[in-house]
Each structure stands twice: as structure tokens, then as C-alpha cells.
UniProtKB/TrEMBL annotation, chain A:
Residues 178-203 have a biased composition (Basic and acidic residues). This is Mini-chromosome maintenance complex-binding protein. Keywords: Nucleus. Residues 149-159, 204-213 have a biased composition (Polar residues). GO terms for cellular component: nucleus. GO terms for biological process: DNA-templated DNA replication. Residues 149-222, 270-290 are annotated as: Disordered. Belongs to the MCMBP family. It holds the Pfam family MCM_bind. It comes from Amphiprion percula (Orange clownfish).
UniProtKB/TrEMBL annotation, chain B:
Belongs to the MCM family. Residues 63-77 have a biased composition (Polar residues). PANTHER family: DNA REPLICATION LICENSING FACTOR MCM FAMILY MEMBER, DNA REPLICATION LICENSING FACTOR MCM4. GO terms for molecular function: ATP binding; ATP hydrolysis activity; chromatin binding; single-stranded DNA binding; single-stranded DNA helicase activity. This is DNA replication licensing factor MCM4. It comes from the Eukaryota. Residues 1-139 are annotated as: Disordered. It is found in: Nucleus. One of its GO terms (biological process) is double-strand break repair via break-induced replication.
Length: 631, 860
């Protein structure tokens, strides 16, 4: 059995060993064995933390052809490609033939015998993956902090340098991500060289990276994102992956410079020689074979779908981790109190709005009935003060609590210019991403207070329609030029507005600040000071992610009483409650139970849900009256 | 070891009496390298040797080979049996004509589609002894089992089989439009050959399905070794053709284009096993490249002695001759572009059609190369079935490195295109576009259809998340199936609308939009628009400049795009009048006339409209008629077959069921729900199957029932002097009855279908056309926008007013308010101001009086 270091540092050797062993007996199924081997290795306790992650280790620190992991979202799926699974090489000097394995590799050895009968053509699929869009800094830090792989030397061949890497990596860990953030993405690696060793061989690489990055769009869904994107080659049942899935991919890193098809010197000469290659447009080549230094290739050995992206929660399924589950469940009610009082403070003393905010943050589309998504809970928080950039502060607080989020200012300019819906670019043959290509359970914060008077142009109208569709049906229609394709999504949309939002929402609540207008400024500025201790923050983070993952059911008796309630309410005043209201109340009751850590609806929770709904409605009535009296 | 060319098998049908060529003559040309090299221009340029004596001067003389850096097949032309398939198309067959009389004078044309890029290994037959399975010309085997290297194709047998196929194959049950006008009981392809001789278009399209039903073995060979078999077919067909029609003149020899390979594949299921096989895939063209001239043959001229030579392209390369054979100077030869031979080539990108795609994945694309006359046959946006050979070529990372990327580039060399959405020439419109159902599937569907409650089952499977509204769901179900399309254009009536239009109106929040969304997701050609957001152009068509070609192109809107589908229009009432007016034509004539920017045309828009409208006062006012509630022009309303009201019923039992339904929606797991209802996919297939294959006709009994129903409907109103049905209602009834028969998979409309149609129609009418004043169903509400009682009332008021004025005697002018008060005082029923105004207007129309401002003047 190979040692730990072996399978992490030289996974290809493991694969090749198995391949060689299989040559003697055919039908040995070495391929499944190889995959199983790595899966078993990774299953073992904490071994996965030993594997360096592309997310937090700069690419040039990683050893080529070593095992790495990458937390990512499938942004685009390219066409499947055929490769030489097994091929034969002829040594030029000795003329000896040798069978080689082409799996998990991009480039063949020298001297391939194309006419060999032993060549096996196999198929693999390529996914274009980007880091999870909108992932918040605390998640990144936490993941990087828990990794035990930081001691991985950048290159294996000079032990003296290993020491340097230790230092640097430690350095990096002590510097929170935030410090690096103000700089533009591609610059950060070179910055490390500044305090590192200038004589390093790799110094050239980052500088060329920055140069080439300028003309290469890495196609991140959100503007201002950074991090590596990756071409992931998938060898086994790629049908189970869907666009926008979030995965943790374990694979073999390949950064062979030979892959950069975009070498400038070869356009005129090669096109003459190889007519097949010149058929691709320059854009297409640029997109499909970007320089490996910028977009590394990752040959997938194992992929773990991420049901959540909260590093504080155990990565295994909740059912398997009953100890953790029971301990958090018992705490949930008390944490809920704390978080409620915190939100009440943030929402200027409005406890009801704070209650609804909790419900919104733990909402989740858990099922779809034909076209109807169930469980979504879009909240429109109207009446937000426009002073002292309240909404931005509010967003910063949410950012601290949820794993991924995005702030979208609905300014006229943004709406008219931003690309929200992904669009297929047929020239480059790729899906150009848009801001609505988000991973599941991302919090999308729409700031409508930024909206000013003006006219929406065609793009603007289309963008607003896309947002409306997202909210009502939890789907985004991707633009494929000749037709549209519908992709279901699961995004929590929070709309902050002054009056009622122009977008649809499941629930609108008007903020009623409990502070006098004269003190408003003051208390607004105090909000930020109130940031909690990190242990408390972590509690909140766990709470919000946990509540979303819980199961939920309604017992028959409660069903009965809910039905009775509905009939009674209708009897009193049919206008007061419609089917839609019942829909909403059922969602509220569900979320309320979950927020208390209860996995089934109790009579109490139902009454409580009814109560807060009633409070909210009366507040809306009241607000309507106030507005009605105004001239 | 002998070259295949000399074997008896190849010589069998040859008329050339030359002795067999010595085996050593063609050492470097493996059979797999055959290529059609014939080109007319070369024949003109270079007089061909007529006897072996001139061979030494011929450029194709054997000793030349040594001077070329690449193996160059060279065979002395006249000594070779030209009819041998194995010589077929080698570069040296550049002979003007063949010894045989018929084919003489008709040059063959290169088929780059079969061999422009080859992956097949080139094996030197001398260095590598043929392995047993390689089955190279096996001389010991009595010379009869000659097969092409690497395959099991025996050229002779294959040719014979194909000729037999051409001569004998008939398909009496053919429904293909290609065969329209042919005598189906005569051999099909012989008639096509005759057509070729008349038309002079030397392309023979062969349906692979025919080949398979005729000779499965031949079909297998065609699929597995298209590159070898198709040239053999070509030869066979040419021989046959020139035997039959010795005098006909063709531009070049006939080329066989097989299509509809049964192994039709989804682009997604292509895998390495398909490489170099004949495949048919369907997809949508997304991009076409410019025309690429691809060199087939390079023309080199020596700079020193002006001696010229030609080199064929070999696997995408031209081997430049290093030494001039005439003057022995090295590196003196230069390429002369003008005299080289090029063929047309085009790169086409094809994308999976949206229907074939699994959810949550992005569509795949494939590169297709079209050659010669297939270039520019398709445009971006076309849906095509492509038959071609799947190829894979290894990629080189850097031309100067010997290292290769371990990836192949794949593409398809197109042999045949068939557009699927093209208006095919002979009737049989797109509904015949076959959605292939497997036997099992058809069986399940038929079983389902045989159930007595299939209608109820299907309607409850429709949008299960929406509660109750059974009749509305049934109506929509019938809309999904549609009536039978009838063509009365001969009698001047034009097409008869087969699509059922439905309008849903009702209180907001009664899940109308959800129903629309569901339907939109269910039908393959559905379009969803909102009346608020769509303009007339968005619905019809607009002209825009194509960014690539800079030509004006017609971009079709939602109505045209949903041809043969359903166009769902939400917020129908919020649509501007301008936009709504385009619907008039679409909803009855099913066409769309456009006159824009110099483009005048009529497009088909055979779409069913499913619209949803909200009442003007946001809440439905039961005291008003439908027209008054939704404020839509009655001209439009009468075009809807069914108008349903979706109202909140407000009764306790209903509430209870609704609550139960909703609550269970929230806690049942997915599996539980699936058990309860029919799968959406089954429903989809069921509808598609019925729409494609079932076209019910009225039975005698049913037509009687329809007549009765219509007469009854007319009678209802006649008692009160009202008309309660118009021919349009009869048409609706027929459509609904037909749709119901389709639901049952019945080819005949029977009386139960009529009964259901009547019931549904009555239900809808009861809801929408009930006069709130009288409580009677009154169709004139929908057809004239006003109920008969209302009209009667108007007349009465006008008469009363006239009497009042006459009673006042000779007063030329009166105060408006005064008159109104007087009338109110006189009349026993309440007179509203509107009613009064209307009465005044009616009298003004009679030229009895005029109204100017606040005074009413009598006209003399």
C-alpha cells in the first residue's frame, strides 16, 4: 500500500502501478479499483484536510500532478472529448514498444505510435468550474484555517525552499484574507513574492499571469470575484452532475505548459499544417484551452457534492452525525433568542421584522410540484431608512452570517447594464455567466433603495423580468440565442426597499423603527459597533445553516386542525384569507418550527405562525391607511 | 504477395482485356487509401498516355514514387482494370473516361466527405504481414473471398447486392414525401435513376431503412464501413445507370448519399465506438463558417525547367516534392495555386436540440464539415438530421513538437442533410415529424387509452398542484389535443381551425398564471408571454439586421414560434389594443400577415391560444357581464371556444378540501406524490402520440348529435327573441368533440364525445355568458358585447325619451339635466346617466335631435 504522501503527492504513480498490474490479467477493472482506492483514502478521518486546496493555496505553490481539492460551482459544461485511454509508445532508440495509460493526463509521452492496434479511445467530459460565487470571506478563512495541508512545498525538487514555503504559508494564514482582498486578484500571488524569495524560479510565472489575465475573461458569475477557475475532466458518470452544482472535487492537478493553445507564435504556421485545428475560432481556443497557469486542469478522481457550504458544520450528512445533531438541536431555541435580539437591534428595535428575517434566512426550496417551488420565502423589507447607508450595513451583517451572499444594488445603471442572465456565446462556444448564476442557498440582497427615477431600457426590462421570474418560480431562463433553457435555482432573495417593492415577493413587512427619527443616525452608526464575539457569530452561523438542513413533517392531527382553522377563518370573512394566504402561512409555520429546532409542526407553532402573520397583516393595513391619508 | 488490384475478384466484371498487372507494381498503395481522384480539369491539362509505351513520359510512371517524400500511389493507368473497385479513385485513375462506353465522358467527382481526413493507419503491406483478421486479399482462398483491407466487405458481392437492391426494392407503403409522384409498386430507386437521367442532378439519396429491410448484412456493412462501401455503391449505381441510360449526360458521376441510418443517435450518446461509422444525428445549426477552399491536389512547377507535377492531399497534408524529376534540381518546385485543385468545405456547428437534453445540463455541440454541394445547404437556426461519418483526429499541441495532446478532435463529415422544419414539398406537414416512440411506450400509452376513465385521469394529472377546477383542466386537456385539421381550401373556405382557444378570467390569485406556466412547460412548442410586457411585434414578427450577414432578416415572435403549439398569454387584459388586434387574424385564420421593411409575407401561426385575464375592478363583479368585467372587445372574445371563470367559490366544503390539498402539498414527499398522479412525461408522450397519429372523423351518429345540439342551442334563445348560438359555436363543438375522441385514441368521433363537448361548452357558457340581469345564458354577450335584454332596455328608454320630448311639444332646445330629471320622474325603473346618454345617442342616430354641450336640440 502506498503511503499517505504518495497518494497525495504522486497519485499518478498509484494509478500507473495499478494500470501496469492490470496488464497481466485482462478485465481486472483497474479503473474502478483506482477510483475506489482514492475514495477509501479520503474517507479516512481527516485525510481530506491533508489535501491542499486550490481555493486557498496559490497555484504556483502546488506541485503539478499532485492530488488537490477544489471547492467549486459547475459554471459551464463543454463538449465531451475523446482521448487516448491506452496507447503505445515506441522508443526512438531501442524501438521497444510500451503500453501506457492516458487516463488522468493531458499530454502523452513522446513517440506515440498512432497505428498501434492497442490504442484504446475513451471518452471524458470537461466542466468549467469557478469558485463558489459570493462565498463570504469568513468561509474562505475558515476553510483555509482548517486545512492541514499548508506545509505542502511548492516544488518538490529543492528541499531548502520547502522551509521558505512554510514561512510564507504561515504568513499567509496569519494575514486574514481581507488584507489581500483590496488588491486585484491576479496581483496577490506576486505580492507574496515581494516578501518571499526573489530568486525563485517561479517569479516569472506570476507576472506573466497578470499580463495574460487581462485579455482572458475567467467568466465568474459575479463581478469582482477572484480565485482560480478550473477545467475539471470527469471520467465517470458525468450525467449525475448538473450545471450550478457545488462540489468539492478531488483530482490530479495538471498545469503542463504545453496545454496553452494560445501561444501566440503558433497561429499562422500551425493553421497551415493542421487544418483541423484552425477550424476553431481564436475565441473558442482561448476559452477552451486557456493557459494552464491561469486555468489549471483537474482530473477528477472523486467529487463530493456539497449540501451546504458552511465550514463550521461537519461535512458528512447530518444523519450520520447524530451527536452533533442532537447537541445543536437542543441549543437551537436558545440561540434563536440570541439571534432574535441581535436582529431586533440591527432592525432598529423591530422584533417582528427580526422574526421574519430569521425565517427568510433559513428558507430553502425543498421540493417542486410541477412548476411550483415549495418552501421559498422571499422577503420584502420595506420602509428601510435611506440615511447613513443603512442597507449596506445591513448587508454586511448578513454577509457575516451566511456562507455565500451577493449584494445587488438595483440602481438604474446597474439594471440597464448588468448581465444577470447567463447567455450562450456561440462564437466562443461557452456560456457567458451572469449574476443570477448562483449556487443553491445563496443570499441575494436586492437593494431597491438605490433605485432612482429614469427609464429602463430593453436590457433593464429583461433584467427586471428575470428577477421577477427568479422570485416567483425560482428559475432562470438562460439565453441560448435560438431558444431559452430553464434552469431551476434555489436562491434566497431579500429585497430592501422604501415603499412596496416593484418586484413580487412572498411576504412584505414594513419596518417600524423603535427609535425616534432624531436618534436614527446615531443608532445606525452604533449597529456596526455591535458586532459580536466570534464564538457567538459562529453559533449564529451554525444555527442558520442547520435549520435549513432539518427534515420536517406535519402530523395528521395538526393537518386536521390547520384545515379547520382555515375553514373557520374563511367562514368569518372569505375576503380575509385566500388560498395564497394559506400557502404563505404554511411556509411560515414550517420555517417557524424549523427555527425552533422542531422537526414537525405543533399546534403551538401553528398558532404562533398565525399570530405573527396577523401582526404583519395588520401592520400592512395600518401602513396602507397612513399612505392613503397622505395627499 | 499480391496487390488486390490483380486478383480475379476485382476483375470479374471488367471488360479490360489487359493482363493482370504484376503484383509488385503498386507496392505503396494500401487499399484503404482509395480515393476518388478523378477531376475533369486534369484530364484536359494532361493528355493521358494511351499505351504502355508512353509510360516513361507519364508523370504517373512508377519510378516517380521514389522522388516523393510521401508514398504516392502510382499505377500505370491503362494496365489497370479500371472497373475494379480497388482502383477506384486512386490518383492515377486520372484517365479520361473508362474503357466502358457508358461511363466514358462522365468524370467522377471527388468525395471529400468520404476521405478528406483519414485516421486509418497506413500500413506498408510489405513490412507488416497481414494478420489473419486483417483479411487482406486472400489469394490462397481460391481468389474468391477478396475483401477490402480491415473490413469484411467483398467489393464484388457488395456491388451486386446493391444493384439488386436498386433494381428490386419497392416500398408500397411509403409515405415519404420524397417518393411522392412515384409509382410505389415499381422499383423505387430505378424510378429515381430515371429522374436523375431527366433532371441531370447526379445525386441518389438512399434511405438506409430501405437497405436494411432489403438486406440486413449490406446495411451492417454500410454502417460499419461507410468509407469503403459508399464508393462501391457509387460504382454500382453508375454502372447500372449508364447501362440503362447510355445516352444521358451528367455533369459528373452519380454519388450515392445514404440517409436515415437507423442507428440514429442523440448527440449525447455518441461515443468512441461510433468513430468512422455512418451515423445520423439530429440537432440545430448554430453557426456556419465561411466557405473554405480545401486543396485536393497541389500543382507544383519547377522553377528551373518549368516541369510540372501534381501531388494529392494525403490526410490533410501535401508532400512537397523535394527533387524535380525532370532536371534533378533539388527544392526547385513551387506551388502554383491557380492550377491546384480545391474543393469547397464549410464548417458547421450543430447543437443538440433542446428536446433531447436532460434537465440541468447544457447542450452539446458537434462540428460538421460539409463538402462540395452540401456547402451552404443549411443556415443557422435550421433543425437538421445529418447523416455522415464520425471522425476523430489526434490533436497536436505544437506543430514543432512531437508531443501530442492525448485528446482527439471529433467531427462529422456530412454526407446528407435533411432539414426537419423545412416546409416539405408535398403536404404532410410537420405533425408528421416523427417523435419516435418505442414499442413499449406505445403499448403503455394504448393501455392507458383503453381505460374507461382515461379522460378523468389525464385531466387530474394536469397541473396536480392546482386544486379542483376540473372543468377548466378538462378544457385545457382538450386544447392540448386539439381538433382534426381539415383543409377546405379547394372549396374556398381555406383551412379550418383545429386549435381550441381558451380564455381564463377570474379573481387574482386563483392560480391562473400557474396553470399557464404548467401548460407552457408541458408542450414542446409552448410560448409564454405576458400581455403587459409584449408588444405587437413581439407577438408577430419583426425585421432586424443580422449582425453577421448585415441583411434584413425576419425575426419571428411568440405566436409564430408556437406554430403547432400553444401560446400562453398572461394578463391578456393588460395588452394594448394595438397588440390585441393582431390576434384577430391568428385566432381564426391561423395565419399572420406581415408587411414590414419590404418584406410582405404570410406566416403560419397555427397556434392555440391560452389566455388569462383579470377583471378590470381587480375583483370579479358578479353583477356585470363577462365583457363588462374584463373589458375586452367582443370580436376577440367570440374567437375563444371556451371561456372559463376562475372564481373563489366560497363554500365550506370547498374550503376544507382546498385546505387539505394545500397542507398535503407541503408535507408529502415526492415519491408519495408521484404515486398519486400520472407522470408528466407520460402525459407528454400521450399527447404527442395522439396529436401525431390520431385524426378522428365524425361518425354519422355524432354528426346527428352535433346538429341536434346546435339546433337546441338556437332554440333556447329563440323563445325570448334572442340568438343563443352562432355557427362559430358549432365549430367549437366539433373541435371539442374531436379532441375528446383523440383523448380516447379513437379514430371516430362518437356520440359520447359530442356529449362531453356539449357539457363542457355549456359549463363554460354558463359561467361566462350568463346575463346577470336575467340569469339566462345569452351568447350575444360574447358575440355582440351586450346582452339581448340590455339592448332591449336601451331601445325602451330611447322610445320613452322620444315620447317625453314629443309630449313637451314644440320646444327646439332643452336643458340636458332637466330632461334627465323629467325622464327619471316618469320612468318606474331607475335610469342611470349612462342609460340616458345612450338613449340620447340612439335618438341622435335617428337624426331626431343633436346634443351640444348641455343643451339638447331637436332637428326639424
Amino acid at each position: 500500500m502506498p503511503s499517505t504522501q504518495d497518494w497525495i503527492n504522486a497519485p499518478l504513480a498509484v494509478v500507473e502501478e495499478m494500470f501496469a498490474a492490470s496488464q497481466n490479467n485482462s478485465n481486472s477493472g483497474w479503473e474502478t479499483k483506482a477510483v475506489e482506492f482514492f475514495q477509501d483514502q479520503l474517507k479516512e478521518r481527516d485525510t481530506h484536510t491533508l489535501v491542499p486546496s486550490l481555493n486557498d493555496v496559490p497555484l504556483h505553490y502546488l506541485k503539478p500532478n499532485s492530488l488537490v481539492k477544489f471547492r467549486c460551482l459547475i459554471q459551464d459544461m463543454f463538449d465531451p472529448e475523446f482521448y487516448m485511454g491506452v496507447y503505445e509508445t515506441v522508443a526512438p532508440s531501442t524501438k521497444t514498444k510500451m503500453l501506457r495509460c492516458g487516463k488522468y493526463k493531458d499530454v502523452t509521452e513522446c513517440g506515440v505510435d498512432f497505428n498501434s492496434r492497442n490504442t484504446v479511445t475513451a471518452e471524458r467530459q470537461t466542466f468549467y468550474c469557478v469558485p463558489i460565487p459570493g462565498e463570504n470571506p469568513w468561509v474562505k478563512e475558515r476553510y483555509a484555517g482548517s486545512s492541514q495541508a499548508r506545509v505542502v512545498p511548492s516544488t518538490s525538487y529543492a528541499p531548502s525552499r520547502q522551509k521558505r514555503s512554510y514561512e510564507e504559508d504561515d504568513d499567509m494564514d496569519t494575514q486574514p484574507q481581507k488584507q489581500r482582498e483590496p488588491h486585484a486578484g491576479p496581483h496577490s500571488p506576486s505580492e507574496h513574492h515581494g516578501n518571499g524569495d526573489c530568486k525563485r524560479q517561479e517569479t516569472e510565472a506570476p507576472s506573466s499571469q497578470t499580463a495574460s489575465a487581462s485579455h482572458l475573461d475567467l467568466n465568474f458569475p459575479l463581478p469582482g470575484e477572484k480565485g482560480p477557475s478550473c477545467l475539471v475532466k470527469v471520467y465517470e458518470d458525468w450525467d449525475r452532475f448538473k450545471l450550478n452544482d457545488t462540489l468539492e472535487v478531488y483530482g490530479i492537478l495538471s498545469v503542463s505548459p504545453a496545454l496553452s493553445a494560445l501561444a501566440d507564435e503558433k497561429d499562422a504556421s500551425s493553421s497551415l499544417l493542421d487544418p483541423a485545428e484552425s477550424m476553431e475560432t481564436a475565441e473558442e481556443q482561448r476559452v477552451h484551452s486557456p493557459p494552464a497557469s491561469l486555468v489549471p486542469r483537474l482530473h477528477m478522481l472523486h467529487a463530493k457534492p456539497l449540501p451546504h457550504n458552511n465550514p463550521l458544520l461537519p461535512s458528512a450528512a447530518l444523519e450520520d452525525n447524530s451527536a452533533f445533531l442532537s447537541s445543536t438541536l437542543s441549543e437551537m431555541a436558545s440561540v434563536r433568542e440570541e439571534i432574535l435580539s441581535y436582529f431586533t437591534h440591527v432592525l432598529l428595535g423591530d422584533a417582528l421584522a427580526a422574526e421574519y428575517l430569521i425565517l427568510h434566512l433559513i428558507s430553502n426550496v425543498y421540493s417542486r410540484r410541477d412548476v411550483l417551488p415549495l418552501g421559498k420565502f422571499t422577503l420584502n423589507l420595506s420602509g428601510c431608512p435611506t440615511v447613513a447607508s443603512y442597507t449596506e450595513r445591513f448587508y454586511q451583517i448578513i454577509q457575516q452570517l451566511v456562507p455565500s451572499s451577493h449584494y445587488l444594488a438595483m440602481s438604474l445603471q446597474n439594471m440597464n447594464q448588468m448581465r444577470l442572465v447567463p447567455k450562450k456565446d456561440y462564437v466562443a462556444n461557452r456560456l457567458v455567466s451572469g449574476a443570477l448564476q448562483l449556487a443553491r442557498n445563496t443570499s441575494l440582497f436586492l437593494d431597491e433603495t438605490q433605485l432612482e427615477q429614469g427609464q429602463l431600457d430593453t436590457t433593464g426590462v429583461r433584467n427586471v423580468t428575470a428577477l421577477g421570474n427568479l422570485i416567483s418560480w425560482q428559475k432562470v431562463d438562460y439565453d441560448f440565442n435560438y431558444h431559452q433553457m430553464e434552469f431551476p435555482c434555489n436562491i434566497n432573495v431579500l429585497i430592501a426597499s422604501e415603499g412596496r417593492s416593484l418586484l413580487p415577493s412572498d411576504c412584505q413587512i414594513h419596518l417600524q423603527p423603535q427609535v425616534a427619527p432624531s436618534h436614527l443616525e446615531e443608532s445606525l452608526s452604533s449597529i456596526h459597533m455591535h458586532l459580536q464575539a466570534s464564538s457567538q457569530l459562529n453559533k449564529f452561523r451554525i444555527y442558520l445553516s442547520m435549520a435549513r438542513l432539518l427534515d420536517y413533517s406535519i402530523s395528521d392531527e395538526v393537518t386536521k386542525s390547520v384545515e379547520d382553522d382555515f375553514v373557520d377563518m374563511r367562514k368569518d370573512d372569505p375576503q380575509s384569507i385566500s388560498a395564497e394566504d394559506l400557502h404563505r402561512m404554511l411556509v411560515v409555520a414550517r420555517l417557524l418550527s424549523l427555527s425552533l429546532g422542531q422537526t414537525s409542526l405543533s399546534r403551538d407553532s401553528w398558532l404562533r405562525a398565525k399570530h405573527i402573520e396577523m401582526l404583519r397583516r395588520s401592520r400592512m393595513e395600518q401602513h396602507k391607511c397612513v399612505n392613503g391619508n397622505e395627499p | 504477395m499480391s496487390s488486390p488490384t490483380s486478383t480475379p475478384g476485382g476483375r470479374k466484371r471488367g471488360r479490360n482485356t489487359n493482363p493482370p498487372t504484376p503484383s509488385s507494381e503498386d507496392p505503396t498503395s494500401p487499399p484503404s487509401q482509395r480515393r476518388r481522384g478523378q477531376d475533369s480539369s486534369t484530364g484536359d491539362l494532361m493528355p493521358m498516355p494511351t499505351s504502355p509505351a508512353t509510360d516513361m513520359l507519364s508523370p504517373a510512371a512508377p519510378q516517380d514514387t521514389s522522388l516523393f517524400s510521401s508514398p504516392r500511389p502510382s499505377v500505370q493507368p491503362n494496365e489497370v482494370d479500371m472497373s475494379s473497385p480497388l482502383m477506384y479513385g486512386t490518383p492515377s485513375s486520372r484517365v479520361e473516361g473508362t474503357p466502358r462506353s457508358g461511363v466514358r465522358g462522365t468524370p467522377a467527382r471527388q468525395r471529400p466527405d468520404l476521405g478528406s481526413v483519414r485516421k486509418a493507419p497506413q500500413v506498408d503491406l510489405h513490412s507488416e504481414p497481414p494478420s489473419t483478421d486483417g483479411a487482406v486479399a486472400s489469394e490462397p482462398n481460391a481468389g474468391q473471398r477478396l475483401v477490402i483491407w480491415g473490413t469484411d466487405v467483398n467489393v464484388g458481392t457488395c456491388k451486386e447486392k446493391f444493384q439488386r437492391f436498386l433494381q428490386r426494392f419497392t416500398d408500397p407503403n411509403s409515405t415519404e414525401d420524397e417518393n411522392a409522384g412515384l409509382d410505389l409498386n415499381e422499383p423505387l430507386y430505378m424510378q429515381k435513376l430515371e429522374e436523375i437521367s431527366v433532371v441531370g442532378d447526379p445525386v441518389l439519396n438512399v434511405n438506409c431503412w430501405h437497405v436494411q429491410s432489403f438486406d440486413a448484412e449490406l446495411y451492417r456493412q454500410l454502417i460499419c464501413y461507410p468509407q469503403e462501401v459508399i464508393p462501391t455503391f457509387d460504382m454500382a449505381v453508375n454502372e447500372l445507370f449508364f447501362e440503362r441510360f447510355p445516352d444521358s449526360i451528367l455533369e459528373y458521376q452519380i454519388q450515392v448519399r445514404p440517409y436515415n441510418a437507423l442507428k440514429t443517435r442523440n448527440m449525447r450518446s455518441l461515443n468512441p465506438e461510433d468513430i468512422d461509422q455512418l451515423i445520423t444525428i439530429s440537432g440545430m445549426v448554430i453557426r456556419t463558417s465561411q466557405l473554405i477552399p480545401e486543396m485536393q491536389e497541389g500543382f507544383f512547377q519547377c522553377q528551373v525547367c518549368a516541369y510540372s507535377t501534381r501531388v494529392e492531399v494525403d490526410r490533410g497534408r501535401i508532400a512537397e516534392p523535394a527533387v524535380c524529376r525532370n532536371c534533378n534540381n533539388t527544392h526547385s518546385l513551387a506551388l502554383v495555386h491557380n492550377r491546384s485543385v480545391f474543393s469547397d468545405k464549410q464548417m458547421i456547428k450543430v447543437q443538440e436540440s433542446p428536446e433531447d437534453m436532460p434537465a440541468g445540463q447544457t447542450p452539446h455541440t458537434t462540428v460538421v464539415y460539409a463538402h462540395n454541394d452540401l456547402v451552404d445547404k443549411v443556415q443557422p437556426g435550421d433543425r437538421v438530421n445529418i447523416t455522415g461519418i464520425y471522425r476523430a483526429v489526434p490533436m497536436r499541441v505544437n506543430p514543432r513538437q512531437n508531443n501530442v495532446k492525448s485528446v482527439y478532435k471529433t467531427h462529422i463529415d456530412a454526407i446528407h442533410f435533411r432539414k426537419t422544419d423545412e416546409k416539405r414539398l408535398h403536404g404532410l406537414d410537420e405533425e408528421a415529424e416523427q417523435k419516435l416512440f418505442t414499442e413499449d411506450r406505445v403499448q403503455t400509452l394504448k393501455e392507458l387509452a383503453a381505460k374507461p376513465d382515461v379522460y378523468e385521469r389525464l385531466s387530474s394529472a394536469l397541473a396536480p398542484s392546482i386544486y379542483e377546477h376540473e372543468d377548466i383542466k378538462k378544457g385545457i386537456l382538450l386544447q392540448l389535443f386539439g381538433g382534426t385539421r381539415k383543409d377546405f381550401s379547394q372549396t374556398g373556405r381555406g383551412n379550418f381551425r383545429a386549435e381550441v382557444n381558451i380564455l381564463l378570467c377570474g379573481d387574482p390569485g386563483t392560480s391562473k398564471s400557474q396553470l399557464l406556466q404548467y401548460v407552457y412547460n408541458l408542450v414542446p412548442r409552448g410560448q409564454y408571454t405576458s400581455g403587459k410586457g409584449s408588444s405587437a411585434v413581439g407577438l408577430t414578427a419583426y425585421v432586424m439586421k443580422d449582425p453577421e450577414t448585415r441583411q434584413l432578416v425576419l425575426q419571428t415572435g411568440a405566436l409564430v414560434l408556437s406554430d403547432n403549439g400553444i401560446c400562453c398569454i398572461d394578463e391578456f387584459d393588460k395588452m394594448s389594443d394595438n397588440t390585441r388586434s393582431v390576434l384577430h387574424e391568428v385566432m381564426e385564420q391561423q395565419t399572420l400577415s406581415i408587411a414590414k421593411a419590404g418584406i410582405i409575407c404570410q406566416l403560419n401561426a397555427r397556434t392555440a391560444v391560452l389566455a388569462a385575464a383579470n377583471p378590470v375592478e381587480s375583483q370579479w363583479n358578479p353583477k356585470k357581464t363577462t365583457i363588462e368585467n374584463i373589458q375586452l372587445p367582443h370580436t376577440l372574445l367570440s374567437r375563444f371556444d371556451l371561456i372559463f371563470l376562475m372564481l373563489d367559490p366560497q363554500d365550506e366544503a370547498y374550503d376544507r378540501r382546498l385546505a387539505h390539498h394545500l397542507v398535503s402539498l407541503y408535507y408529502q414527499s415526492e415519491e408519495q406524490m408521484e404515486e398519486e398522479f400520472l407522470d408528466m412525461a407520460v402525459l407528454k408522450d400521450y399527447i404527442a402520440y395522439a396529436r401525431t397519429y390520431i385524426s378522428p372523423r365524425l361518425s354519422e351518429e355524432a354528426s346527428q348529435a352535433l346538429i341536434e345540439a346546435y339546433v337546441d342551442m338556437r332554440k333556447i334563445g329563440s323563445g325570448r327573441g334572442m340568438v343563443s348560438a352562432y355557427p362559430r359555436q358549432l365549430e367549437s363543438l366539433i373541435r371539442l368533440a374531436e379532441a375528446h375522441a383523440k383523448v380516447r385514441f379513437s379514430e371516430k368521433v362518437e356520440s359520447i364525445d359530442v356529449e362531453e363537448a356539449k357539457r363542457l361548452h355549456r359549463e363554460a357558457l354558463k359561467q361566462s355568458a350568463t346575463d346577470p340581469r336575467t340569469g339566462f345564458v345569452d351568447i350575444s354577450i360574447l358575440t355582440t358585447g351586450m346582452s339581448a335584454t340590455a339592448r332591449k332596455r336601451k331601445e325602451e328608454v330611447a322610445q320613452a325619451l322620444k315620447k317625453l320630448i314629443q309630449a313637451k311639444g314644440k320646444t327646439p332646445a332643452m336643458k340636458y339635466q332637466q330632461l334627465l330629471d323629467d325622464l327619471r320622474g316618469q320612468s318606474e325603473t331607475a335610469i342611470t346617466k349612462e342609460l340616458f346618454d345612450e338613449a340620447l345617442r340612439a335618438l341622435a342616430d335617428e337624426d331626431y335631435l343633436t346634443v351640444t354641450g348641455k343643451t339638447v336640440r331637436l332637428l326639424a
